[in-house]
Design brief:
By secondary structure, the protein is of the alpha+beta class. It has a single domain, classed as Beta Barrel (Thrombin, subunit H). The chain is built from 2 helices and 6 strands. It has a 6-stranded antiparallel beta barrel with strand order 1-2-3-6-5-4. A hairpin with a 3-residue loop joins strand 5 and strand 6. The chain is globular and about 35 Å long.
Amino acid sequence: MSLISRLLDHLRSGDMPEERQAARASRPVLEVEIGGYTHRARDWSAGGACIEGFAEAIAIGNILSGRLSWANDRRKLAFTAEVMRLDPGGAVALRWLDLPLAFQQEMEAHIG
């Protein structure tokens, strides 16, 4: 098997090294509002989040802004994030660029 064939097999297997720098959580539920639509985060950290059900046309590297909150929390806090990954089915991985410090601290406290 050639080197290229082995590399392609490795990539297809999904056996890729973890690139996340922060531990992830899925509870409490994080809601991310962008363009008037609220999306639930599949997982989140103080470094970013993966949201599902995103239908807007975007590309990796796009900068998005909106509001976020914990589910059933009336607070809606502004954020800015960069699109890092687009998954089939509408999942979008975001890296926070601007996140309120108090909210970031809450995230870190939930993760432990």
